[in-house]
């Protein structure tokens, strides 16, 4: 089995009581529990039932580890956003990484229309195990980042934009057609999936590293 | 009337004889004549009939001015391409500019995956009246260029790419959603339209300039 | 740097407090500030905080120049709409032009189903530096205008219509396929981008003009 | 039964022999016969078998009436095209009208980018029973025509164009969204259907007219 | 000018006061006035201002003729619906026909899954000048009706259905591809346009008829 | 295991030699073998190698049973086509049914534009275990058939048509939205899948029937 | 006529009173009555009017048989769901089967990401007359199930998911392209149609079975 | 710089001579060279010019390392295909991995319709650093594989299939919506990108591993 990974709840479409019920069951089974797409009602109800659960209302996640001991996080994943509107998806990613036991940092609002703001962070970019790039509208940032780094880039299209962004389709297509070779893509707004896959990579790098 | 502009023939779907007939008529009417989307058969036939016509087999254009006197070109339009596959569309643009009496230069293969190649040309970029950016695949280049210059950028999506480029739809959407504000867009592979509009702008700038 | 241009805030998705915070910071940095896509809550809050800011509730913009001195506007940009439903997008354009220091005028409800209403304005059309055409539904107006003028036409598709307009896709496609050569296009409802690019053109024409 | 209407063969996808067989059978049954979408091989074979059949290689039709007597055509249908590339579809329409016993005339290449060429024909436009407008690319012509006439307009989108015309989808959408109220639409390149429906209308007008 | 036709207001997106203002102005100009897409707020406000205006809350129309004298309606247009959910669009059509001075009748819920219900009305179908067929979901009814009648069929796709009806796209495509030749189509839910065009046809038939 | 079912080869994209190799192997393993999407080259090569294999060049299938003994077919599946262009897909279906040991019959060219031709076959329709309806263009036939019978209807959209049929998408959507409840659908041109599923149903009915 | 089948009401878009009226009429005609897509208002109203009607608020159905005697259900249909979010559609299916007099059972949350949970139920899967598979997101379950059973599989795509599921289009396409041959598909969220068709099959199998 | 990585040529759209010219230049610069999308003409010409280059006509690649010494490959990447038609894309992936210095193995034709064939390889699956899954049609395989392994899965949709696969769009959507969390996706037929990214991951794991 997948020891060290939390159980993940996709809260969308569940009632607050139902969601809390799943959390309760995982708790009793001794498992760490992480929920995504937690809406306001669910968050309020979970807060009453599990006041020590860790809530992030920007990223709409709920994180409820068994142990309150500080954990040692491994790896080094960098999360970039093109705009500030991409923050909710980025937070879902960051919280997923934490729940998976992986170290992360974020750099926000470094879209390609202001290249100098991105280039300022070049050393940070080049020291990461994985770079996750979160972008809506033209979705051009992963193409540029892919040309600057030597590690895999996971691109996350967001539904930020209007008109011909078509709810994230425009940046998704940009990312699938990125002219940098080392760029892979996930579903629109799928911050969780990007974080989860990055964590699989970062842990694998770290584990080998440690076990040597 | 639009003095100084050539008559333009859209050769696609016309027989060689038909195309040559239109050229002949314009010739007799004393008008400069410019044809786009000239296929191999049409080009060969036009070459026999009008050997002093100027053919560009990359850009698939035919240019047949009344006067063989050297003209003074005005303005300063820069044409960039992201890849080498975008060259045919760029040539259609460049030849349109020439036919419209406007000065141009090109810089090829400066896609965003190799940012240093683009940044090397910054002074040239910043001295243009208009920058036309021709790109397929991710279509990310106009977003980056728009952040570097102070003049209008005309983005031309090309049908270069495979899979989810959908024959140019992916770069078109990227360009319509460009996060730089001064970017406008034309139809897929519409090098002619980009060149034509850029010429209208450059001539307007130059004319005022001269008439002062 | 881009002296003479205001800083622009895209208010969509920001809280009123957040939006006001950005305005505040720009104010203190001595910069003119212009916000688009300002919703009712944001507008009300900005009105309390900055009562001398200039609000346009039709165009959903907020304009807050440092100086209250009358400015000299340059250039001559004409904004047309096909229907009355296109007014909000046209206002976003007009206010952008003002904030960019460019002179503009508007003509409303001159769609192609009543050609005589358009043709009545022919002299005004033909004296502009740039014509911006705002249209939803069939999006046919820029094709007609492009055949009547000698300057660049920037077409703005709007989401006005129902059924197969698909939220602005139908007029967008019409405009990308306009049979007049000097027509370029921006994103659906992107009044700001059209205004911004037209201002770049008009200022460039005027500057040369003046500097002679 | 539908006396006075020919039997119609859709030749696409049939072998020359098969097509000729259907013609033969209709001949023996004493029926007028009209075939559309006749390709070169079919046309050549039909020419050998039925040398007095009337072929139109532009409109790709074959018309084989029982009687060679001149018929009296009724009604008055006008067929317009926006460009010259729309001619094949227009011919399919014109030949359908003839086969249905309806009088027609055509005006070619009066697209909206050159409005003066269209307006020159205003009296002809306003005297028709039905106007059929054939257009590709931006498909804007029916919207303009619908505002000039008092009779039904049948719009036929064609697959003429490139890039975002998407094989006729762009003009189809323009036509479905025409801002003139009396415009109805048929399938892309469906010259036959437009001609057939116009004939139903024109004959109905004429019949009543005559029978009074 | 188009004597005998009312002025038509497209109420969607207008405030109640604005809508009433247009009605007022038309009233004073002595013109009959017809409004479509009238929402609940507009309807309530119009009822206070113009209590003798004729409202249809199913078809969402407002009809306000100058004269209260009974008019003589001409022609004979039949409006069919496939289901009961198509009634609102059918009513918009029926009210448009009345406002245009044309006689009409309706037959509801005769979709192709219960063929016997349709066939029962065959004589009525075959005596109409025009048949308008309103259908959502599979949109199959116009194909069947087109095979049963000798007059033009105007097909109106509606947004009734779920999943792959895509808000009316499925029935629209069915109708554009109808295997009966005399079927033409309008925009999704465009009951007004179908009624308007049918009225143009019916009046033309009747006028000639009368003037003989 | 699935005794009584042949092994099925999808020949598309395989070389003739490769295809024949698979046939050979199945032969040696004592299995009946059925191939679909067999192109001309493959068919010619298979004919040399396995002259007693049963080829259908309309349905593009190859059927090679181990035993040449006449088999007893079970069940009663009816295959209808709307037009004659749908024959290739119908043949793929019919041959699949035979290879699966199921009895079938076909009725061709009974599209809804000529309802009387369909209704003539009502008793045959109502005696089938399953009706498979193959149709392109408007795809309306399954909706009508579903209202006439009491057994499951499997609808097969074909790529027959032009313009907005979009290679079979139009009839597919019609079928998915069929207003008759007992209609299920397969992929475009998927005659094999319809035949295979119908055979599963017919055999199940027959088996129980026999085993009683 | 179709004895033994209830009359079915599609409640979507009907008022509570209208819906109850139809129920009343069917009641008086002595017919069993089944309604789908019953919203909260309709359900509450039906509960007052027909307190002994059987309501399922998960599946949004109303079932009102004439007789309260226990019925003997026939056949054996299995309904699977990939996730818990697919339950509402599965319930619509299950209730349809009951109303059609067919025996059914359900297995929930056996999506392909946890294959062991599915394989645990293999004997149940292999004993069904028909398996109905309800799935959103990737829609992969029917492909897997089709490889495990010998009976027809009816696949129901649901609108569960986000981003590129496009409201159920993604699982629909997966199902239409299922690499298992015996899989047929219905509209998105069309639980009713899947249940209805499965019932037609199961009853046919059972009837023959019994009548032997 | 990126030592150890070959220079990659995208041969599509280049003439044989042009392609060979690029190879020649890289050769002289002492760099390993790898070309993808090499068509028959290019391959034949390259074979004459560089007879010791390594050609793979299934994967359409050309590999031309400087040194003929055997290299030590690192890492462990597994490439799976759902069908045999996916082989060309898989070979492009495998050859990219080799050129990047990474060890790989392939397992072919283990699609989800025959689950036992996949499950037979479970130990191999679970020992990989990265699993690349290549699949067309329903694209269901990555969802299943993602549930069986603990490493990142890179999904490659292929254009194998017909009808509603829409040239690879159907499997792409399935993969983007995979219900297994650790699945990322690349463009349709983008075997190169999948191999390149997997190599970045595998080398990173191996490097750390070795350097410990
Ligand atoms: N935001 C998300 N996007 C996609 N999948 C998710 C997300 N959050 C959770 N999941 C997946 O959904 C599964 C749980 O679904 P459920 O059993 O319905 O709570 C988990 O195993 C995750 O793999
Ligand atoms: N490549 C092109 N793309 C779009 N429009 C074009 C192109 N080349 C020519 N045109 C337009 O087509 C018109 C001539 O069309 P035609 O009369 O068919 O030769 C010219 O006036 C141009 O505006
Ligand atoms: N339901 C409708 N669908 C399409 N066009 C309409 C509709 N109702 C009115 N119109 C058109 O809209 C025009 C009036 O638009 P407006 O000036 O915005 O009120 C009229 O001349 C009609 O041709
Ligand atoms: N959920 C559903 N999806 C599709 N069709 C349905 C559904 N529920 C009922 N129907 C069909 O709709 C018909 C009744 O429609 P109506 O007369 O509008 O109530 C029935 O005969 C059913 O075949
Ligand atoms: Mg920003
Ligand atoms: Mg390059
Ligand atoms: Mg108006
Ligand atoms: Mg022309
Ligand atoms: Mg009904
Ligand atoms: Mg036929
Ligand atoms: Mg689950
Ligand atoms: Mg296989």
Write up this protein.
8 copies of one chain form a homooctamer. Chain A has a 5-stranded parallel β-sheet with strand order 6-5-7-8-9. The first copy, chain A, is globular and about 50 Å long. The mean pLDDT of chain A is 94. The first copy, chain A, is built from 8 helices and 9 strands. The first copy, chain A, folds into 2 domains: 58 residues, no CATH class; 135 residues, Rossmann fold (3-Layer(aba) Sandwich). Chain A has 212 residues and is an alpha/beta fold. Chains A and B meet through helix 6 and helix 7 of A and helix 6 and helix 7 of B. Bound molecules: adenosine monophosphate (4 copies) and magnesium ion (MG) (8 copies). One magnesium ion (MG) binds next to loops of chain B.
Characteristic terms for this protein:
homooctamer, 212 residues, alpha/beta, Rossmann fold, 2 domains, 5-stranded parallel β-sheet, 4-stranded mixed β-sheet, 38% helix, 20% strand, binds adenosine monophosphate, binds magnesium ion
Secondary structure layout:
The structure is a homooctamer of 212-residue chains.
Chain A: E1 7-10, H1 16-28, E2 33-36, H2 40-49, E3 54-56, E4 61-64, E5 74-81, H3 87-99, E6 102-107, H4 115-119, H5 122-126, E7 130-135, H6 141-146, E8 153-157, H7 169-176, E9 183-185, H8 191-211
Parallel strand pairs in A: 1-2, 5-6, 5-7, 7-8, 8-9
Antiparallel strand pairs in A: 2-4, 3-4
The complex binds adenosine monophosphate (4 copies) and magnesium ion (MG) (8 copies).
Residues 83-84, 109, 111 of chain A line the site of one magnesium ion.
